[in-house]
Amino acid sequence: MVEVVEGGGTFVGRAYLTIITDVATRCIFGFCLTLEKPSALSVALCLAQAMSPKEAWLTARDIEHGWPMFGRPRMLAGVFSTK
Asked: How far from 15 is each of 3, 37, 54, CA to CA, in Å?
């Protein structure tokens, strides 16, 4: 479990990470990191990132590493964990 705490030590909330990975390559196609509990919205945001090119996202964060994976998945399978 990851808890988010402000600089003054005030508890902000629990962080939740939703990821989409390619089974064949084990590459991460998309993710959504939020303080909200997992929901249809976090899955939709994760899918949107997975299907979109990542160049603009990387550039906005001054990340020089490439992330070439994107596109519509052929099949989706869900694994849900609270661990």
From this structure: 6, 8, 23
| Predicted confidence pLDDT, tens digits, the chain (83 residues) | 677 787 887 888 889 999 999 988 999 999 999 999 989 999 999 999 999 999 999 999 999 999 999 999 888 887 766 66
> Which residues have CB under 8 Å from 80's CB, separation 6+?
38
Q: Report the C-alpha gap between 49 and 19 in whole angstroms.
A: 10
The secondary structure element, H or E, covering residue 31 is: strand 28-34
Residue 51 lies in a domain: yes
- The residue range of the domain holding 12 is 3-60
Separation of alpha carbons 1 and 13, rounded Å = 11
Interatomic CA distance for residues 78 and 22, integer angstroms: 12
